[in-house]
Amino acid sequence: MSYYLGIDVGSISTNLVLMDEDYQIIHQIYLRTEGQPIKAVKNGLLEIRDKVGIDSIDILGVGTTGSGRELAGVVVGADIVKDEITAHAVATIETIGKDVRTIVEIGGQDSKIIILQDGIPVDFAMNTVCAAGTGSMLDNIAGRIGIPIEELGPRALQSSEPADIAARCAVFGESDFIHALQVGIPMNDVIAGLCHALVRNYLNNVGKGKDIQPPVVFQGGVSENVGVIRALERALGYEIFVPEHNTVMGAVGMCYLSKRYIEMPVQEKVPVTVPAEGRRTSDGRTSAVALGTIRKTSFGGLNLVDIEFATKTFKCDGCANTCRVVRAYKEKDIVASWGDRCGKWST
């Protein structure tokens, strides 16, 4: 069987999706990154190898996205590396349709909004330094009160009077949450208030000034929380649609993008010829001609899990920028460098 592999490496989670040539999602993986993106990617590849079988799988193309996309791309030998905005937009358009007008994506430590018109992204925004409108706020509070994060949403729906929780930052939000419990406000009301606070922070920061129109699609890890879904519907006044693969849409988008790239005709520069007295001669010019062949993937194979990868950094003193350059090593060999502004090391 032949597949395309999409990988989304974020600060909280690392997601892998396997899609066949008929655009069917065969397998999806949601893992905790835990500050070790290389290990997370290798664990995902190991799960694919164990569950699907290395002898019965042919990876035609691989794409990476997320905050760790460059590193992941080097490790696996990605054919294409794209930003999260592009990946989420492509996944939504391809799996849901061009009618979608707004994409709300809230992950573990970042959140974004994408505005679409006729299937084309025309505007977007991402959170900056505040984590109050992200899943880390929910995760921290769930751990503090000893309730599994999966239970926060259902308990929020049991509230009839959500508490007023500060939404301006994660620290104040957590402090308000604990204070509300200490003064006797029921737990479910406080949890519901937390969900509303997260939505207010998102709309006041990421969504500020954006033309949010339906249909609205909600994706990312926080879209699993039904309490946040209801709070978002209440704030916007629109029905919120959560797609089937809501937690791994970035990886889904990279499956589609890698398939597009691999199937793009290979071009080669050939001489431009002109007829001259029955013969074909060249005047020295060249033109790109599509050969119509399928590109070969750069993917290193599922046996990458058995290879040691590592990174090291150094400061370049070549100019006043003093860039911190990251070098990736495969065993003892340097396979890639990035982080420099001038391209001295990355090229």
Tell me what you see in this structure.
The protein has helices at residues 37-53, 69-76, 84-95, 135-145, 152-157, 170-182, 187-205, 226-236, 249-263; strands at residues 2-9, 13-20, 25-32, 58-65, 80-81, 102-106, 111-117, 120-126, 216-219, 240-241, 267-276, 279-290, 309-315, 324-330, 333-338. Mean pLDDT is 87; it is low at 276-281. Helix 2 links the parallel strand 4 and strand 5. 32% of the residues lie in helices and 29% in strands. It is an alpha/beta fold. Helix 3 crosses helix 9 (249-263), helix 6 packs antiparallel against helix 7 (187-205) and helix 7 (187-205) crosses helix 8. It is globular, with a radius of gyration of 24 Å. The chain folds into three domains: 2-86 and 250-265 and 296-303, Nucleotidyltransferase, domain 5 (2-Layer Sandwich); 97-242, ATPase, nucleotide binding domain (Nucleotidyltransferase, domain 5); 309-338, no CATH class. A five-stranded mixed sheet has the order 3-2-1-4-5, sandwiched between helices. Strands 8-7-6-9-10 form a five-stranded mixed sheet.
